[in-house]
């Protein structure tokens, strides 16, 4: 197991380097000059020159890259062009926000997706199955930014039930924090819930057909016991791996969700940084998400190996 | 947003000639037919846009700015007095085009790369796989945003960005299918009798990887349409005054209170067309999946 | 024992009443400010935060008169090359350092010589300075500069604590230390900036809040929804389209002030090869474009009529506006005649770049539709602002929709755009006559004399039209009814002196 993880990490290293080179080159080929914007409305040539010097824009791109990579190895990802805050600090500050959003979305998704999947597999072919499938497909098909807009229109503008935006740190006021995050988490959770429902349904279907469920039923166990204790437990194995793989989707979904609800998280940071041409921030974010994503993949594979050897009859 | 991390289909390789049974299965699946109908409807509307009896999508009317739906404007008018219905009809062109073209880019680049990796294996496979992983490490939409920003905002560039972002999944799919076909007995024996590379690819590999590619393409078109809408929504796709559903929503969100219809209809259109492609893709998968009984 | 109890009770009461009165004012901003260093920052929103954080040497009235702030008086010598400023006594910075002539000298030097200073051009006329005594500083100029005092009413006149600035260097903006009514507490990027009342502020009695929180919320609908829900007490830059709905809301009030800046279409008339276009080489085409636009309708369609139509660098209600050229009515026939005269009777193509934000693209789409009726076929290229700017300064554009945030002194809205070699003259317009008039207007301290020169320059510019002015933004603030005493200023700032909130 350790050897497996070790090998995967070794393989991941060139991938990370490739990502960072890729993003670095891409960014510096972008049209538009952030220095001109930063120099202020007057665009004083002396200031422009001083800024170029400060951010090493006058060096050739490979030199810039090596300087950045060297610093990054020592844990220094540079400073934001726009606000001069250290990039690592920025990312660190945004992480709890997006994690809270993602976790809440995941909880909502699990609460909806797994029971719906179980039910629809159990009642395969009935109207319940039919309804659950249509709802799940709708969840996959609805653009979540539009869902967000519609919810703001309905819940905040028309009904005034929940605030339309904002963020309250969990540590300051937990109730308010959860309340504010409820709508965005729901929007982000819909697509995930649909994916989970579909995976749970198909896993349950194959488990329900298996011998040990038949045996359990033959033993005269109550249906609920069979369903939850025997079937669901085994069906959850592939579902759990799917959840780890949904990390990337949560993150990407968070980009638009945070944009719409103006949540000061990771996704908003990345979009604003791309639009502001805040090189160091984009670079830092891509590096961090890349590493996190690869780590999640390795974890998912490891989990799969641990959980999956064979489905066991209990 | 649908998951695009992993291929949504992986069929066991089988020799071809099952098309007719697949068609039978497809025809008996009401969801698939519904999906096909929805997709066809939007296709026809998009194609007929120039001859439908609606005002031009860029025709402005200063006296009818942000007017609620009425007989003259069934879906209302937008922020500078253009007919929302007309813009939606023309916007269908942008959405469908974006979906199809970006997936075509992904398929045309991804499938040969994936086949190459699966066929040659070894060093080539390692390079292509690392490259795929690097692309996959950035979440789909973030990659597309970065690429679209890099290429400059336009519909064409958004399609390229989405195509490139969707490419890794086709590389993976083609590679996995090729790898498993290559281990089949009949391929081994074909090799033994001296059939060349091109012959192998044409006669055994392509027919085997085609069904899952078709299914994946259909599902990816759904994702790509949402991605185009998302990019346009962020201002990175279709540019004004040309209409696109995502761009219409981008403007509409500023007038939620005064003109909710501006946000309502384009969203419904995206939802329906994506649902159509998803139903169609699911139906195709069920029909082409040889495992299911 | 009894007394102790009473005392305890009193303390408790005091503490609890303190809690009740711990008032926080929450202000919704349209954008997240950039770095909070007055010498380095460049955004409009940043200045809104400074209005509560960093006092300036002088301030303005809503009528744009210059009034004392940290400087209590100033005097020019006879030829206008020496400015003697008297400073307020007993002022301290947030870190307890004294404010005095030395501090002003330090700040002047930082604005002028700090290599990353964005204020250099604003204080370029300053040659040297001399600390006369603790409360007097004498500033020497190379040549008379009528605009200097007005510069001191903005970021160039903001006083930073020399000690803090020296220690922090480039990173001053992470923890700014000034002499304003509030001190910096914390900033979470894209989320909030929190300031706390400065107990030793020299006008502390005018400040009625214990803290002020600025919250950047770019989406106008969401910003307004938050005001309605009570999560904000006031917001800046209400969308013009939301004006009717705020007016009909009993719980909200609205304040307005016409901005000092403008929005227009800058035409490339001499910036590289791309100036060789019909619109770049022939002023008749530019005037035709101007005549083709119905500015009132534009204002009505895009801004519900809440903004101000315009045809000059300053708004029609400005004392500097040249009344000989009122905002023109639309005249499509005259526009067509001008085009025909220029040899484009069959129409002319113009490519305009525009920043890809919803409002600016909406403006240009309306202009596009209007111009088409006169035979001017506009094609729009939406670009991100950074790209738009770099293409514009490189001359890689035919025409560009861009604006200017505006300055208190008229010079700031016209000189650097219209003089040969001007710092941001991206159209590369050059006319010796205009150069002379604008340069001379700078040297004079006589308002009537200056007005005459600006009027003469404007008459020429109306003819040449390197910039087709479209409209002037109006700052619109929406406030909760319980916020009292807010005064709108044309510079768009939020001054909290005298503002209070009822429970």
Helix content of chain C: 25-40%
Q: Please tally the helical runs of chain A, counting DSSP H or I stretches of 4 or more residues.
A: 13
Succession of helices and strands of chain A: HHHHHHHHHHHHH
Instruction: Kindly state the number of beta strands of chain C.
Output: 21
- Helix/strand/pairing class of chain C, anyone? alpha+beta
From the structure provided, what is the oligomeric state, counting identical versus distinct chains? heterotrimer
Total number of β-strand segments of chain A? 0
Biggest sheet of chain C, open or closed, and with what strands and sense?
7 strands, mixed
The rough form of chain C would be described as: globular
Estimated share of beta-strand residues of chain A: under 5%
- What level of helicity do the residues of chain A show? over 70%
Could you tell me the strand content of chain C as a percent range?
Answer: 15-25%
Radius of gyration based on Cα positions of chain C: 25 Å
Query: Residue-averaged pLDDT of chain A, rounded?
Result: 82
Give the strand order, joined by hyphens, for the main sheet of chain C.
8-9-10-1-11-19-12
Compute the number of helices of chain C: 16
Query: Poorly predicted ranges of chain A (pLDDT <50, ≥5 residues)?
Result: 310-314
Report on the architecture of this protein.
The complex is a heterotrimer of chains A (314), B (293) and C (503). By secondary structure, chain A is an all-alpha fold. Chain A contains 13 helices and no strands. Chain A has helices at residues 2-29, 34-38, 45-54, 61-73, 87-122, 127-141, 144-158, 174-208, 211-218, 223-245, 247-260, 266-276, 279-307. The longest helix of chain A is centred in the N-terminal third of the chain and has 36 residues, at 87-122. Chain A starts with a helix and ends in a 7-residue tail after the last helix. The two termini of chain B are 30 Å apart. Chain C is α+β, with helices and mostly antiparallel strands and 503 residues long. The longest helix of chain C has 20 residues, at 2-21. In chain C, the strands form 5 sheets. Chain C has a 7-stranded mixed beta sheet with strand order 8-9-10-1-11-19-12, with helices on both faces. Mean pLDDT of chain C is 91; it is low at 1-20. In chain C, 33% of the residues lie in helices and 22% in strands. The interface between A and B is large, with 51 and 46 residues.
């Amino acid at each position: 197991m350790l050897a497996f993880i070790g090998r995967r990490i070794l393989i991941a290293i060139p991938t990370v380097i490739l990502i960072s080179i890729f993003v670095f080159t891409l960014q510096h080929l972008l049209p538009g000059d952030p220095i001109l914007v930063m120099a202020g409305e007057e665009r004083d040539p002396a200031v422009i020159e001083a800024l170029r010097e400060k951010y090493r824009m006058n060096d050739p791109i490979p030199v810039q890259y090596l300087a950045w990579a060297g610093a990054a190895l020592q844990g220094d990802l540079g400073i934001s062009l726009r606000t001069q805050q250290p990039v690592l600090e920025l990312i660190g500050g945004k992480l709890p926000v997006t994690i809270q959003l993602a976790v809440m979305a995941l909880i909502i998704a699990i609460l909806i997706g797994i029971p719906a999947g179980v039910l629809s597999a159990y009642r395969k072919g009935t109207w319940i199955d039919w309804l659950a499938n249509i709802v799940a497909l709708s969840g996959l098909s609805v653009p979540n930014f539009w869902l967000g807009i519609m919810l703001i229109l309905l819940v905040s503008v028309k009904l005034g039930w929940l605030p339309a935006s904002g963020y309250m740190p969990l540590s300051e006021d937990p109730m308010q924090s959860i309340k504010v995050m409820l709508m965005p988490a729901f929007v982000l959770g819909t697509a995930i819930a649909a994916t989970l429902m579909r995976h749970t349904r198909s896993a349950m279907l194959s488990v329900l057909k298996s011998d040990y469920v038949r045996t359990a039923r033959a033993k005269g166990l109550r249906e609920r016991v069979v369903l939850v204790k025997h079937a669901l437990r085994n069906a959850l194995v592939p579902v759990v791996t799917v959840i780890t793989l949904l990390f990337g989707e949560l993150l990407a979904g968070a980009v638009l969700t945070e944009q719409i609800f103006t949540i000061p998280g990771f996704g908003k940071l990345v979009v604003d940084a791309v639009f502001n041409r805040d090189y160091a921030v984009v670079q830092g974010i891509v590096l961090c998400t890349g590493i996190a994503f690869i780590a999640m993949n390795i974890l998912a594979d490891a989990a799969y190996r641990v959980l999956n050897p064979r489905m066991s009859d209990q | 947003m649908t998951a695009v991390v992993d291929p949504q289909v992986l069929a066991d390789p089988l020799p071809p000639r099952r098309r007719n049974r697949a068609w039978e299965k497809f025809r008996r699946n009401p969801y698939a037919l519904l999906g096909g109908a929805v997709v066809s409807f939007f296709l026809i509307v998009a194609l007929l846009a120039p001859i439908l009896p609606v005002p031009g999508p860029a025709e402005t009317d200063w006296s009818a700015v942000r007017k609620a739906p009425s007989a003259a404007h069934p879906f209302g008018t937008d922020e500078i007095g253009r007919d929302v219905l007309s813009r939606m009809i023309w916007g269908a062109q942008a959405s469908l085009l974006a979906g199809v073209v970006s997936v075509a880019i992904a398929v045309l680049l991804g499938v040969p790369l994936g086949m190459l990796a699966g066929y040659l294996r070894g060093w080539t496979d390692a390079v292509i796989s690392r490259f795929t992983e690097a692309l996959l490490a950035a979440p789909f939409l973030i990659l597309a945003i970065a690429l679209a920003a890099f290429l400059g905002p336009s519909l064409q560039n958004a399609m390229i960005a989405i195509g490139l972002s969707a490419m890794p999944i086709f590389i993976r799919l083609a590679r996995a299918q090729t790898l498993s076909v290559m281990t089949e007995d009949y391929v081994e024996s074909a090799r033994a009798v001296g059939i060349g590379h091109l012959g192998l690819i044409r006669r055994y590999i392509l027919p085997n990887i085609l069904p899952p590619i078709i299914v994946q393409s259909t599902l990816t078109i759904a994702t790509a349409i949402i991605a185009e809408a998302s990019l346009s929504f962020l201002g990175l796709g279709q540019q004004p005054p040309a209409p696109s559903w995502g761009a219409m929503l981008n403007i509409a969100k500023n007038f939620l209170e005064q003109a909710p219809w501006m946000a309502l209809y384009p969203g419904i259109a995206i939802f329906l067309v994506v649902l159509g492609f998803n139903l169609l893709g699911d139906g195709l998968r069920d029909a082409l999946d040889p495992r299911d009984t | 024992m009894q007394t102790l109890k009473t005392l305890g009770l009193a303390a408790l009461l005091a503490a609890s009443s303190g809690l009740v009165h711990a008032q926080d004012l929450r202000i919704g901003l349209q954008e997240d400010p950039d770095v909070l260093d007055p010498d380095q920052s460049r955004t409009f929103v940043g200045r809104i935060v400074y209005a509560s954080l960093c006092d300036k040497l002088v301030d303005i009235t809503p009528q744009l008169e210059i009034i004392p702030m940290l400087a209590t008086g100033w005097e020019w010598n006879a030829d206008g090359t020496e400015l003697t400023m008297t400073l307020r006594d007993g002022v301290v910075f947030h870190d307890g350092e004294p404010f005095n002539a030395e501090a002003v000298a330090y700040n002047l030097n930082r604005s002028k010589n700090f290599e990353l200073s964005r204020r250099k051009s604003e204080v370029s006329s300053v040659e040297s300075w001399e600390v006369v005594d603790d409360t007097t500083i004498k500033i020497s100029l190379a040549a008379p500069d009528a605009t200097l005092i007005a510069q001191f009413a903005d970021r160039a006149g903001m006083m930073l604590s020399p000690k803090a600035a020296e220690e922090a260097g480039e990173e001053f903006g992470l923890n700014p230390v000034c002499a304003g009514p509030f001190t910096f507490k914390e900033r979470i990027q894209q989320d909030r900036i929190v300031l706390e009342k400065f107990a030793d502020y020299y006008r502390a009695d005018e400040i009625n809040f214990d803290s002020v929180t600025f919250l950047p919320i770019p989406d106008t609908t969401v910003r307004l929804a938050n005001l309605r829900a009570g999560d904000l007490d006031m917001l800046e830059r209400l969308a013009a389209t939301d004006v009717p709905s705020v007016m009909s809301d009993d719980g909200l009030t609205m304040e307005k002030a016409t901005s000092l800046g403008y929005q227009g279409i800058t035409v490339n008339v001499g910036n590289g090869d791309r100036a060789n276009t019909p619109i770049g080489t022939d002023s008749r085409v530019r005037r035709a474009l101007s005549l083709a636009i119905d500015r009132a309708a534009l204002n009505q369609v895009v801004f519900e009529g809440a903004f101000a139509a315009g045809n000059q660098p300053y708004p029609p209600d400005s004392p500097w506006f040249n009344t000989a050229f009122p905002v023109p009515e639309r005249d499509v026939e005259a526009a067509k005649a001008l085009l025909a005269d220029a040899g484009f009777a069959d129409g002319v193509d113009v490519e305009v770049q525009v920043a890809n934000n919803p409002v600016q693209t909406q403006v240009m789409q309306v202009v596009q539709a209007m111009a088409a009726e006169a035979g001017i076929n506009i094609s729009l290229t939406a670009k991100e602002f950074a790209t738009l700017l770099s293409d514009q300064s490189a001359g890689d554009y035919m025409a560009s929709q861009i604006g200017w945030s505006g300055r208190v002194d008229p010079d700031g809205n016209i000189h650097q755009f219209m003089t040969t070699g001007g710092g941001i003259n991206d159209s590369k317009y050059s006319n010796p006559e205009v150069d002379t008039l604008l340069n001379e207007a700078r040297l004079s301290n006589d308002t009537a004399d200056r007005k005459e020169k600006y009027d003469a320059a404007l008459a020429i510019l109306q003819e040449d039209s390197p910039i087709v002015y479209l409209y002037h933004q109006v700052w619109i603030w929406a406030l909760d009814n319980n916020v009292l005493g807010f005064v709108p200023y044309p510079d768009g700032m939020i001054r909290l002196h005298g503002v209070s909130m009822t429970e």
